[in-house]
Specification:
With about 45 residues, this protein is mainly α. Helices cover about 65% and strands about 0% of the residues. The protein has a domain at about 15-40.
Length: about 45
């Protein structure tokens, strides 16, 4: 199994979508990432 880091673009996307009230699960679906990854990025 290979792992990839979140890109700067993805981190900006996560930050923007958090600011307008999207849930971690919805952001994860848009990025095709696991929701746990999004939770950890926001921590």
């Amino acid at each position: 199994m290979s792992y990839t880091h979140l890109t700067k673009t993805e981190l900006i996307f996560i930050e923007e979508y958090h600011s307008i009230g999207h849930t971690e699960r919805k952001i994860a679906k848009n990025l095709k990432r696991g929701h746990e990854t999004i939770y950890r990025a926001g921590a």
